């Protein structure tokens, strides 16, 4: 680009455009070109990552569907003082809306109502069949309240009407409270679930416990392997690296099933222990369908995710550092602790965070190997997603897991520093 200087000291291009304006225009073009280059990736992340997470967060508090199915009922219900049974107007509203409501929409509403109190689905289904017969006969009830109670005694049970109070608002926090083994009582206060329904808090603690154990064992097992890989001659380290990467070439389902065969009481490991005389035949150890099996299988499966970051960091640590420390009088153990180990912290950080994040959301391996005692929170997310279709509770569990990971990430950044994470 040719430029020239005018008498008023304004620098112009050969086209007579001020150089400052021309540079800004060129800069805008470069920014636009850069944006267009990253736009496909940005769009992909937005569609496959941001939008699903936003939808999950919305579903975890959304309770609007049932209000569209029974709008008049909820309108009259809000006028009720909560004493005894609702007035005649509420019964008439539910009668009319069950008589005119579409089957598919009512069915979806029943699923939601059953989350608040078991029995709503059978109550509504039976009532709806009888209401259709009454409407078809052309004789409308004198008292809607008495008619519904006569059809099913549940309409005279105050607990059903109290449960309806959880569905009044279009947004609700009930799913989050359910995910923490809590619910609402008659006054709308948060109380603990019945003893037999308290399953999620215990599962949350188990998930954290298993994730910590797996991360610890992966570090203990992976550190010497990574150190060996980094210090062996190239031809030997390449061979060992093939064995480290070999699990990635095998189906996760196959590896998990193999662990079931190995860990069961009549499996390979127990057979070897009996053959060596370490245990008697009637003392075979139960290592599968419990937390022990979950930890063993997950540790083996996630071990490469610890070894690879450690290896990539150890590979670039100069071997002269240890020799220099020993020449200065440090014993090998002290030189390792004071000189070598601090330089591996970036790899430990990266591997530990990677293994922990993967472990806390694991589903397939705990579901197959863990049995009832080794199931993690991922099991309940999948269960409500596929079986109960309680997407609100499923989304709440996923949202809590997401927030938990963000909190742990924040704490990790405060204690260790995210800048210390390196992959080589």
Short summary:
It is built from 20 helices and four strands. By secondary structure, it is mainly alpha-helical.
Walk me through the structure.
With 424 residues, this protein is an all-alpha fold. It folds into three domains: 3-59, no CATH class; 65-172, no CATH class; 201-420, Orthogonal Bundle (MetI-like fold). It is 68% helix and 3% strand. It has 20 helices and four strands. The strands form two sheets. It has a two-stranded antiparallel sheet with strand order 1-2. It has a two-stranded antiparallel sheet with strand order 3-4. A hairpin with a 5-residue loop joins strand 1 and strand 2. It starts with a strand and ends in a 9-residue tail after the last helix. The model is unreliable at 1-6 (pLDDT under 50).
Give the biggest sheet: 2 strands, antiparallel
Secondary-structure-based class equals: mainly alpha
Distance between the termini: 42 Å
- The ordered string of helix (H) and strand (E) elements is EEHHHHHHHHHEEHHHHHHHHHHH
Reading off the top of the CATH hierarchy, the class of the largest domain is best stated as Mainly Alpha
What is the correct CATH architecture of the largest domain?
A: Orthogonal Bundle
What is the molecular shape? flat
Mean pLDDT: 85
Radius of gyration: 32 Å
CATH superfamily caption of the largest domain: MetI-like
Total beta strands: 4
CATH topology category name of the largest domain: MetI-like fold
- Give the number of helices: 20
Uncertain segments of ≥5 residues (pLDDT<50)?
1-6
